[in-house]
Every structure is written in C-alpha cells, then in structure tokens.
Amino acid sequence: MAELALILCIIFVLWLLRAEHKRNPSVSWALWIPSIWMMKIGTMDLAHWIGRGDAEKGTGSPYERYLLIFLLCLGLMILYKRRFDWYKVVKESTWLIVLICYMFVSIFWSDTPYVSFKRWTRELIAVIMALLILTEADPRKAMQSVLKRFIYIVIPLSLLLIVFFPEIGVREYSGGDLAAWRGITGGKNQLGKLCLISAFFLFWTLVKSWPGKDDTIVQKQIWIDAIILGITLVLMKGPGIGKMLSITSLITLILGLATFFGLLLMRRFKRVIGVKTLKIFIASCIVLGTASVFVGGLVVGESVTTAVGREETLTGRREIWAMFVPEVLKEPFIGHGVGGFWTDKVVKENRLNQAHNGYLDILLDYGFVGLVFFSLFLLSSCQKAHRDLSYDYNSGSLLICFLVMNVIYAVAEASIDSLATDLTAVLLFLYVTSGITQKSGEARENTHDAQ
User: Fold this and answer.
1) Are 386 and 273 in contact (CB under 8 A)?
2) Per residue in 203-260, pLDDT tens?
3) CA angle, 407 as apex, 404 and 408 as ends, to 5°?
4) Rounded to an integer, what distance in angstroms lies between the CA atom of residue 267 and that of residue 131?
C-alpha cells in the first residue's frame, strides 16, 4: 500500500510540475537550479535520506556540500554565459552586498575559520541563486515559478511521509507518548515554516489570479492551488493541539494575511502605505524582538502568549535566551563570526542548535554591528517594496508581507539570521527582483508610449 501511494504521489507531483510549466513556458531550464536549492534548504539533510545522520550545524553533511558546490558552479557558469551585469546589482542592492561582505570579514575573528568559511559560502550561494532568477526574461514570473515548484514537491511528499511512512514523517517525543509531524523537513517547526511559506504564497496567488478571466489554464491553476492550499492547512494543523503545534508559524501566517488584507483595503480606497510608516514598523519589530531577549520575555506583555495557549516563558524560550545572553556580552560588537558560535561542541553541550530568536542568533554570530547591517538590509527592502507598489501592487504587497512575516517569525525562531533558510530566501528573491523588475517595467512602458 505504501509503495503504491509513493508511485501515485510521484505521478501527482509530475502532473503539478507539468501544469506549472504550461502556465509559465517562458522560464528556462536553468531555473531548476534555484528550485533544487530551495528544496535542499527546506528539507532534511541528504545524510538522513541515505541513512547517515552525520550533518553538522551550519555546514551540513559532505553530501550536502557536494550538492551545494555543484549548484554554485552551475550558477556561476550560467551567470557568466549570460554576461551578468554585476555592477548593476551592486548599485541596486547595496545593503545586501554590504551584509554579505561583512559576513565574509567576520571569518577572520572566528575561532573556527574553516567552518565559518563553509558557512559563509552557503550565504553566498543564496545570493547566486537569487541572481540566477534575476537573469530570466521575466524575473518576477521566474521567482513565482521557483516557489510553485518548491511547494508542489514538498507539500505532497510531506503528506505522503506522514500518512504512509510515519517512521520518517513523524517524530516521537517523551518515549512515544507525544508525536509531531515533520514530513519531509527536519522537525515540526521546520514543517510549520514550510507550511507558512506555502499557505501564504498560494493564498496570494489565488487572490491575484481570481476569477481567471475565462482562461482555461488559469482556472485550472486556481483549482490546483486551492487543493494544495487545503493540504498545506491540514499539515499546519498537525496531529493535535498544544505543544505539538507550531504556534509561531500559525501566528506569523495570521499576521501576514492581516497585512495582506490591509494592503488590499488600502488599494481599494486608492491609498498607499508610506515608506516611513513601513520602515518604522519594521524597525520597531526588530527593536522589540531584540529587547525581548534581554528582558526575558515578550516586551508586549503576557497577554500575547497566553492568548495562544502558551505560558509567558514561550515554551522555555526565556530560559534559552537567558542562557545565551552572557555569550553575546562576551563579544557584543562583532560577535563570534559567521557560524562561529554554533559549533558541534556548543550544540552537544546545550542540546540546541539555535537560540529560538533570530535576533539573538545574529548577535551571537555578528554582534550589534551585524544586527545593524541586517536591519539596514531589511529597511532597504521597505524602500524597494514601496517603489514596487506603484508599478505592480501585487508584487509590492508580496514583498511587504514576507518582510513583515520574517521579522515577526524571528522573535521566537531562528531564520532571519541566515539568507540560506527558506523563509529568508523568499525575501531575498523578492528583494533582488523587485527594483530591477520595476525599472524594466518602466522601460517597457516608455517604449510602448514612444511607439
């Protein structure tokens, strides 16, 4: 029965990918490179699939590294072949380049420079994947195609593993008394984050495509996206309530959808959110998320956590934060270097591989200087999103919503501290394609007016 389900699932996934190709036939084969990369960072390490769990924190297993090196080489070859304009990217994405350069410099004060260099290479690969999307004929459609492929593969496979291969897709806790779904990912929080990305993007796609303008292909795509959205919501619910449910992802999704509806309402009344307002909101989230670590809990008060069924300690996060704040104070300005804190020794001693707060993880690796650079990168995203609203309101709203969801999710989980995580990678793709897409769109409009 399980083997038959596996075969049917593979056929279903191939059918979904074929439907996506019909919707976007203009994208090149090279787009599979960032698509495969997204699937790699959003799922279990390759070592687990071949029965060897020898993955290392921040660097992964040797099998992962071989795959990453292969994707990096392919990416660089394609960028060279397409005569990519590096100067234009530096000009349009200044703070992203500054951030990746600061990450590289931090290798030199790391206690484990070799591990830090491998960790930085992963950050660099994330940027290369984004630039590959940028070289497509229509970067905006290419970015959406990458996300669709990612979702169409990982969501059905996660459901398959949970239902028919529970020894892989379900993880037991407390001697088997509690079980949490993890699907094709490394754990319940990772599955929750995967569902967060999928649910929001599919919902955004449905709103953008509805009612389909009597286009048969579009209407077919709407039904497909609705079905996958339903599966995603089932996965997000989990096997029960309470500790086995990814509350962080659920809250982030709700706030992301609220932001999206707010932007739609503003559009209806022909209003546009001010760039200063957006920057103040994002900066406030960063400040509050960072301050929560030092005050020992959410600075917004106890009502938020109790309202969603969590104690004020955020399921033990307060104790975790208190454990690692002294480590921040040892190197408050420049941190321990990229990947320099979460070494194998630290992971084994603390039985943790993250601080459950993205801002705290930034401080551990990059210090307050690094936090400033990350913040400037995020605030520059506000500027790009605001410009994009005047050209393509849907794309601009998508960037704003993923920006909001990233800074909110980082309060309770690590993600925003690395460009090579699935949630931040989506933001990176949107960031890189936003400004360039807008300018190319203006050029097309100017050409049309001239004609």
Assistant:
1) yes
2) 999 998 876 555 677 788 889 999 999 999 999 887 765 555 678 899 999 999 999 9
3) 80
4) 30
Cα–Cα distance, 412 to 21 (Å, whole number): 37
Cα 110-112-116 angle, rounded to 5 deg: 75
Please state, rounded to an integer, the average pLDDT across all residues of the chain. 86
Query: One-letter amino acid identity for 31?
Result: L
Tens digit of pLDDT for each residue in 410-425? 998 888 999 999 999 9
User: In angstroms, rounded to a whole number, what is the distance separating the alpha carbons of residues 413 and 406?
Assistant: 10
CB 19 within 8 A of CB 221: yes
Per DSSP, the three-state class of 332 is coil
Beta strands 170-173 and 178-181: pairing type? antiparallel
What spatial distance separates the first Cα and last Cα of the chain, rounded to whole Å?
Answer: 62
Res. 450: pLDDT tops 50: no
In this structure, the chain runs to a length of 451
Written as six digits, the tokens of 233 are 């919501």
Burial class of 316 by CB neighbour count within 10 A (0 to 12, 13 to 18, 19+): exposed
- Lowest pLDDT segment from 16-20, 137-141, 260-264, 312-316: 312-316
Contact 340, 327 (CB under 8 A): no
Residues 410, 415, 416, 420, Cα dihedral to 10°? -170
Dihedral pair phi/psi, residue 178, rounded to 5°: -125, 145
